[in-house]
Amino acid sequence: MAAETLVKAGVQVDVYDAMPSVGRKFLLAGRGGLNLTHSEPAAAFRSRFGARASQVSPWLEQFDVQALRQWAHDLGTETFVGSSGRVFPKEMKAAPLLRAWLQRLRASGVKVHARHVWRGWTDDGALLLDTPQGTTVRRADAVVLALGGGSWSRLGSDGAWQSLLEDKGVVVAPLQPANCGFLADWSPYFSERFAGQPLKSVAIAPQGDFGMRRGECMVTSDGLEGGLLYAWSASLRDAVLTKGQALLHVDLLPARDYAHVLEQVTWPRGSRSWSSHLGSRLGLHGVKVGLLRECLAKEAFEHPETLAAAIKCLPVRLYGMRPLDEAISTAGGVRFESVNQDSMLLSLPGVFCAGEMLDWEAPTGGYLLTACFASGHVAGQGVLRWLGLSAG
Ligand SMILES: Cc1cc2nc3c(=O)[nH]c(=O)nc-3n(C[C@H](O)[C@H](O)[C@H](O)COP(=O)(O)OP(=O)(O)OC[C@H]3O[C@@H](n4cnc5c(N)ncnc54)[C@H](O)[C@@H]3O)c2cc1C
What we know:
Layout lengths: L1 H7 L5 E3 L7 H8 L5 E2 L3 H6 L5 H10 L2 H10 L4 E3 L4 E4 L5 H13 L3 E3 L3 E5 L5 E5 L2 E5 L4 E3 L15 H6 L5 E7 L3 E3 L3 H7 L3 E9 L6 E8 L2 E3 L1 H4 L2 H11 L2 E6 L6 H9 L7 H9 L3 H10 L8 H9 L1 E8 L7 E6 L16 E3 L13 H20 L6
Parallel strand pairs: 1-5, 9-18
Antiparallel strand pairs: 2-4, 3-4, 6-7, 7-8, 10-17, 11-14, 11-16, 12-13, 12-15, 13-14, 15-16
Helix pairs in contact: 1-15, 4-15, 11-14
Bound molecules: flavin-adenine dinucleotide (FAD).
């Protein structure tokens, strides 16, 4: 997006990418339907960036959801708003959009150099690049680094830029998994029996947060995974990192209130097992009952109030995150105090940053790509200002 902003203004642009082709993570995002952005009101959209909302909002003011949808439209990709408010290309694919975009960029003069791994700078400030033909040196009037976070390193974003920038005085917050799976201490029985099963129609929130969110997540062999969990991944991760664990509260029956659940669990059970009693009175079956048994002491089943409270608010202890490489996105990165409002590095004038390598995060929902595109646009505008040019 920075390249596009620059070439439109008549600047000669060269794009270097470590991989044999560009946009591999974008293509991967396309496998899940390519959630490009979200249609919710701007204030709600901005709030998704949490503690970094005030840094990301100016990007979105320059390149907003409508601008992104128009950009896709101009490239021949119509978008639609799904029932959740998320915005997708009608084809639910990234490849046609990326293809059309690269064609347009190349036609307007952008040169794309694949298999060029940036390794830092020479003593006199030129870019050092490893290529299949050996190391080469390139000079530029300005540089935009858009090197991604640290997840899915096989697609190119390996986070190796951290030390190169830290050596130049740039402050980088440690890269952490965002929108990631979490680890729980499941018993072998629970793990073997229920791994791979979805917990459907539940609501969850970290301990201390009363804004339970409804949805679905997946039991894995060593924890929990999935969209509903991702929505809380920042606060769960911060609890794990600061306290060594996070307590997740799970409402197994969000459509029923506590009084109803209590009434049903108090109903005489006769000779029926707890599983069949909870199944017939409350429709609780399979993995939900399994989770209840896994996280609740056996004796608690004999106390209706405790059991009903657990069904409505079951504490599940999480003690870690799945590795960064598996995460959908990355938290941490170049701290905002190291860049100016154009995303230019204060310690490296003429070098700009864009995308996930900056220190912000957001849940899934199209917020990640939108902010990446917007920050690329902002970096491009910043370069134009740096070069003393105006946008074309
Ligand atoms: C499975 C999955 C699904 C996703 N789905 C969605 C979705 O539906 N909606 C959404 O909004 N977001 C989604 N995302 C997140 C989104 O894809 C990323 O936030 C976005 O791609 C980040 O863009 P970026 O340009 O900052 O980094 P990247 O897309 O990671 O690109 C960084 C580029 O820099 C190159 N590079 C890195 N280091 C070097 C170097 N030293 N030299 C040269 N080149 C280098 C890499 O090869 C790569 O091409 C998804 C992510 C994953 C993993």
